Amino acid sequence: MTSAPLLSQAARRFLEKCFPGDAAVFTPEETFVYGTDASRRHAPPAAVVRPDSAGQIKDLLAFAQAERIPILPRGRGTNTVGGCVPVAGGIVVSTARLNRILEIDPDDFVAVVEPGVVTGDLQKALAPHRLFFAPDPASVKFSTVGGNAATCAGGMRAVKYGVTRDHILGIDAVIPGGEVVVAGGRTHKNVVGLDLTRLLVGSEGTLGLFARLTLKLLPLPAATATLALAYPSVDAALAAAGDVFRAGVLPVAMELLGREAMKAVAMISAVPWPAEAGAALFLRVDGSPEAVAADARLLTAATAGAGPVWSRAAATPEEEEALWELRRLLNPASFKAAPDKISDDVTVPRGRLRQAAAAIAAIGEELRVRILVFGHIGDGNLHVNIMHDAADQGERSRALTARERILMLCLKLRGTLSGEHGVGLSKLPFFDRQIDPVQRELMRRVKAAFDPAGIMNPQKAY
Amino acid sequence: MSTEPTPVHCLHGQGSRPECILCGRCLPACPLFAATGREELSPRAKFFLARAVAEGRADLSKKAADLLATMCLSCGKCENACPLGLCGPDLVAELRAAHPGFAGFLWKLWIEQAGVMWPLARTVARLLPDGIPIEAVNRARDAIAAMGSGEAPAPWLYPERFDPAQAGKKAVLFAGCVAEHANPAWKEAARRLLAGLGVEVLPDPGFTCCGCTLGHAGAPDAQAAMQQQNIEAWRRAGRPLLVVFCATCRCGLRAYARKDLGLTMDELDPWRKNLVSLAELMGRTAFRIGEAAPAKVRYHRPCHGAGGNQDLDFLRRAMGGRLYFNEDETPCCGFGGLTKLTSPELSEAVARNALAVYAPKPGEQLVTGCSGCVTQLRSAAPAGVRVAHWLELLG
């Protein structure tokens, strides 16, 4: 067993007292899984604690600050960038027992939750109130609100509703030393002071530990409809996507699957599209039944020009779910395509998508690596998976070259390294290429204001 | 025919196993994680640790062995959640089988903690790990008998008009360990129903336990011997309908057709088709609701429903609107696998979690179609809430 940096006896005694029973874990076997996440990187933590109250978090952060022990917030460890990997050792704080929905207020249109609530469970609890929480990452059924907030998760509905940051009204965050920052509130607008809530969202666990979150709710649209289409090429599908916006429709979701991505899904699931298709476009609209029916007609007309080779419209929840599950299977499916992958979620201005997709395909061809392209194209967000066998030195090296060239390409198109996964460990080496020295220095000072000793999720994000 | 016994859960363990991608989809599916919030018990954690052990990056220490081999309910929910079809119980059973000391350790525990259900047959005693005295087998059977029928509710479901569709068919009844040793009344109730349906029930041709639990336990030789004894018994009876009323037994028996146990090609289809749940046979049988009926009955879906859920359809027809079932609330009872034996406190935590999810009010009843679930939920149910196998409700 890889040995973890040891805690002092005093530190261990403190944790045992503060987290009695099985709420503190120290053996390397039990803490093993807490050293990893969906990035599949690993580093051993020194201990794991499972608070079930905010009081415990305050005591822990006071102690950790005094002792200079790293603190690693962890929801379900579903992030793909190594955000939960304890590269500097320290104490992993699992939110698995902070999983209560504290309040759903249909008049204020807010919910107050603990960070460990699974986002999908919250959606289920909101549905009877005819309310919903808009962020909808692909991991919605198994990732947490706290984790979604820490990474500012996006998801398929972002094209119409925005990302997690746009739906969090307030956060109670415990910062090193044990103080509680009660940022924001429960109003849907609020311009008093600097917006610390929006700063905390997406901070990747580097500023404080979320103890509770106040979420903005929206009326649940009465109806949705989905149109899935296949085109001969990615370029044709992207042209169709542009036609949709030009027709005056703002879909609630607009997703692309490139040819290789479609093949990967077909390896783990039956698929409805024809084998010769080169790209799939998934569109969804929501609203009143009348508006949805009208928008669905507009979608069908707008997408016809680019020459679809297959299409399927779905208007019942079951039919729609069957189509969208194919999209959600993409991440697990991609692991079937090759032993290893490098995964990025670059984002470019919407108008540059066709240029970006063509250039990515050319890089793949030139360097002889298979590249899966899919993503939230309504946001200009492309998921790029470079498939390879890391055991083959030459292939690994070509894959790494391809990655760097794709990241630089996107920056050149005035895009960003990450639209929604965050930086974590995996994009950190490229951070300076996007963020200039002035911003870097400001970020360092902001970090120091929250976390002067640098104990919160160290060596990550920025 | 010679067979290479392997532990069986859902038999996806055959061939090479894809590598866990740590995506986290199994966490909400795992009843141990749901009840405890301990991620180290999740299937993802087990696959990750087992791989490190296999690659020599971690020792198979006592602690690792405990986590990997003793703390799994063998419910198989993770397999359904996993995009790669990885099955936690398969992993656990393989690890147990690979470490022969494990089965001996289990038996020692069992002897020390009599009172836990264990499938038994003298015929397989010789295949059990060394050092298990035959007296232990007898004591085990006595302990199952001592579980008794518990606090069953008074009957309130009376068959009025049997569906004639099955009349004239021949059947053997596979009662399973609990009904054989602890609740013989279930077997009698099943016989009465079959008689009502006009099905001729042939004498017991010598069935033993389905072998499921021994597979989970990593005792593949004993499991295979039981499986072959059951196949032989079915053959002797003339390959008739094989009627079960326990979801786990049904799941275990169905798996025979997917493993080389000596069923010939001609027998595979009859085995699958003739293996039927009693609930399925009830068809359009009409029932009268008696005065003892509670206002609300919650259906507990056994994890080993394996694509069946025939009980639910049948109970909906028989009980109408008083039967309540929410597709999103299907907690595990915590009985499964060997956790009740190896980590009773975990098993109890899962049962408590299930009852917290159901939150039955006094006077309500919980009904299910799995022997293990009945036993477990009955022991954990709050005062005023009765738990029943549906057979117990029949008057």
Explained architecture:
- Chain A has helices at 9-18, 28-31, 54-67, 119-126, 145-151, 158-161, 196-200, 234-246, 259-268, 289-304, 317-328, 330-337, 353-367, 393-412, 431-434, 437-450, and strands at residues 24-25, 47-49, 71-74, 91-94, 101-105, 110-113, 131-132, 168-174, 180-184, 209-216, 218-219, 223-231, 253-258, 279-287, 310-314, 340-344, 370-375, 383-388.
- Chain A has 462 residues and is of the alpha+beta class.
- In chain A, α9 packs across α12.
- In chain A, a hairpin with a 5-residue loop joins β8 and β9.
- The model of chain A has no long low-confidence stretch (mean pLDDT 95).
- Chain B has 395 residues and is an alpha/beta fold.
- Chain B is built from 19 helices and 10 strands.
- In chain B, strands 3-2-4-5 form a 4-stranded parallel β-sheet, sandwiched between helices.
- Chain B starts with 30 loop residues before the first helix and ends in a 6-residue tail after the last strand.
- The model of chain B is unreliable at 1-14 and 113-124 (pLDDT under 50).
- Chain A binds chain B through residues 1-2, 22, 25, 27-34, 36-38, 40, 50, 76-78, 94, 96-97, 99, 116, 118, 120, 124, 139, 141-143, 268, 329, 331-333, 335-336, and chain B through 18-19, 21-25, 27-28, 33, 36-40, 42, 44-45, 48-49, 52, 57-59, 61, 63-64, 67, 83-84, 328.
